[in-house]
Amino acid sequence: MESTLMPSPALFNEKASGGFLGERERSLCVECKGTKMLCAKTRCPLLVKYYAAVRQKRSIDSTSIFGSAPGVFVGRYGYPAVSVGPLLPPIVGDTAELDTPEMWIGKTIDDIVGMRSALVRGLSTVNVKKPEKSEKLVTDLQLLSMADKPIDTSAEFLRKPSGRIELDDEVQPFGPSAPLKKMEVGNFRLDDRIEKAFYDKDLMARDAVLGLYHDSTLVTRIQRAFSMGAFGAKKTRRLVPTRQSITAVDSIIGETLVEEVKRLPLINEYRVFESWQLDNRFIVLMAPEPWSYELVEAWYPDTIWNPAGRDIMVISDHELSGGRTTYAKIGGCYYAARLATSEYLLKEKRQAKVVILREAHSGYIMPVGVWNVRENVRNALRGAYNSFNSLEAALTHIQGRFDIPIKRWTLNSFVLKDSRFQKRLTDF
After folding, report:
1. How far apart are alpha carbons 245 and 230 in whole angstroms?
2. Distance (Å, whole) CA 342 – CA 261
């Protein structure tokens, strides 16, 4: 997709925005990321401004589409009566890449917008607590969510699909939408692993997720089926909004892997990994100490969550060996990065203290979903690392890779402060 779809960062300077954000509101944006409405507005003013800046795609000039549907979407507004429907491109063939973030490392924002804007979302209201009232639709969407490849699908809409590309910090973008009149699915074959979990009505959802993960099922596929209520004891199955299903699956897997990691011996060196994608710089620091974990994000001015700021906004969340009992204020990114980190350590059969540092620079002008964090951390950990004999040597190396001074990272990091300044018995 041509780059004119991307608004200039200048659109978000204070003059251009008409002062639509106050000082207090700007300080909350990085924490909120358009989802918690901490500014007390009914809609995120940043996303409203972004939508106004993005050139609208031409409406699809038909009330029907035939294509190969790679995914489904369950909305969250109006819960328990939410909008559900297929993500359907007017393309027949192997469209799996359009809804498989594991395949997106190396793509540009234009690439991602181009792929995702081709997905038309059909809208039909379903009560997640009474899905039997929409049984055929729910059954067809479950089939789409469990298929081993995209299913040829025809859909009729009450009007021509139109509208902006939808943005969310948790969920990958998608294109225009329209109320769904009816849909029909063609021939399909289910993923054998997911099908087995679906028909086991005594298998708990958590056990289904873990079993599928250990059977090498893509996390995205597990999340998709989870959102359509494909797992769990028969009487407890529910449709789950897509954004919640993404974080739930990341959390279940990561939390379980961490418990295994805690029983492993420590690494014997300091390791530094990195991945740079979409003008995001990720560095993963591992230290030879018992498990604790932290994600620290630094958002530069002119990024989506710090558009009119004059300073870099930093936010962090952490857990020590006892884990955490509250939802991370940093959001789904926290759990996505923890999953990627714990699976690496388990593969290495080692334990470590982990700090992930993220610099989001001005080229990251739109949210593309938490997959960006999960897959970047995975990408970093697949590559070679630099090893060091001391924390200070590792931090000196990191300083050469980042713009933000190590002092500021440390001030905003509980885990780094603990490692640098807390005296231990071995120090005496």
Report:
1. 12
2. 7
Q: Helix, strand or coil for residue 421? A: helix
Does the reported pTM lie above 0.90? Answer: no
Is the pLDDT higher at 42 or at 44? 44
Please tell me the chain's helix, strand, coil percentages from 3-state DSSP, rounded to the nearest 5. 40, 20, 40
Q: Which amino acid is at 248?
A: A
Backbone angles phi, psi at 31, to 5 degrees: -75, -40
Contacting residues for 404 by C-beta, under 8 A, at least 6 apart: 298, 312, 359
Element counts in the chain: helices (H) and strands (E): 13, 12
Alpha carbon distances (Å) from 74 to 145, 157, 241, 428: 11, 17, 5, 56
How many CB atoms neighbour CB 18 within 10 A?
Answer: 8
Both tokens of residue 261?
A: 């990691």
Q: Read off the pLDDT of residues 172-190 as tens digits, 9 standing for 90 and up.
A: 877 888 999 999 999 999 9
Mean pLDDT to the nearest integer, 64-68: 94
Nearest to 254 by CA among 337, 375, 170, 171: 337
Cα separation values, 215 from 199, 210, 219, 345, Å: 17, 8, 11, 18
Among 48, 51, 29, 47, smallest CA distance to 38 is for 29
- What is the distance between the alpha carbons of residues 97 and 99, in angstroms, rounded to a whole number? 5
E strand or H helix at 126, and its extent? strand 120-127
For residue 9, what pLDDT band results from cuts at 50, 70 and 90? very low
